[in-house]
Amino acid sequence: MTDVRDSDTGLPARRPGAEASAPAIRQSASGFPVRTPTARLVQPGGRHRRPVPASLPEGAPALILAVPSAGEDGLSGATAEIATILRVDNPALDVRTARIDHGGRGDPCGIRAVLDDAAARRPAGALSAVVVPQLVTPHLATVRVLREAIGASDANATIAEVFNTNALLAEALHIRLADAGLARADRVRMFSITTSADGIIVATVGGEEAVGFANVTAILLAARLALPVFAASLDGGTPTIEDAAARLEAMGVTRIAIAPCVVGPEVGPAAIETAAAAVGAKCAAPLGAHGNVVKLISQAYGQALSQLETLDGT
Are residues 79 and 174 in the same domain? Predict the structure, then answer.
């Protein structure tokens, strides 16, 4: 079960005549957004971001969820659920999912094919897509592949990443730990449980940069739980899961739990379980389609539109 319906994604709904009444990307005579083709990474805003525009213009760019998948089923499960929620909550938004396939057009669900299809459905020169990597921590290799795919495609697209979101991630990790009986439930839920962990490892992918980002989330999670929490890498970065476990054990922690700070598809199915077994830890579920993940993706899309409007001087 996932916690998805209690979250307002905050994306705009299309209204008749919205093009004339709401802020929009610079438009051509036909009423569609126009930008010089580019593949630019939109820098994240601060905690208090500009709200998503109240309405989407006709021909608004697609939101492409770009999924770095360690398996063949990366577009099912959590990814499919996230896309469905975004579509239901925002019927005006063109939501697509794509595998990050390192180039090539052979896969109809690969990022190149999805980018080209989005571009074909919009006027030449119009911003055709905002690509949001389905990741909650930085991942330089993924961004590099996406830039190459955009450059090799016919699409005018930009990349928007889900960053500066530590408080929402800490809340989601807390709930996943509570669901697994590894932490006391959030006060909002008005009940408590007996916990089976007294130290937490926030596990992520993306190397040392991702761990550095997750350190802030770990601090906020520690404050929520009143327990020691350290961030660690699942994919070869430092500190490793073993390093973090050694730090906890040096503090006298005997019951360790792993909180995977991942959506799910970006890490191999057995990687989390293997890491947990290596240090004798219990493990919560990945974030999956938690409501906060959906919210962060929609905010990334809205922030991209806001940044582009600012750069256009509109």
Answer: no
- Three-state SS for 40-63 is CEECCCCCCCCCCCCCCCCCCCEE
DSSP result, 256-286: EEEEE-S-STTS-TTHHHHHHHHHT-EEPPP
pLDDT in tens, 32-89: 444 434 443 444 444 434 434 556 767 789 999 999 876 677 899 999 999 999 999 8
Identity at 182, one-letter amino acid code: L
Burial classification of residue 60, based on how many CB atoms lie within 10 Å of its CB (0-12 exposed, 13-18 middle, 19 or more buried): buried
Task: Say yes or no to pLDDT of 280 above 90.
Answer: yes
Tell me the CATH number at 106. 3.40.50
Model pLDDT, residue 311:
57
Instruction: State whether 237 and 300 are in the same domain.
Output: no
Tokens standing for 266?
Answer: 């970006």
3-state secondary structure of 192: coil
Domain hosting residue 92, numbered range: 18-164+292-312
The pTM for the full model equals 0.79
* 182 and 125 fall within a common domain: no
Residues 24 and 157 in one domain: yes
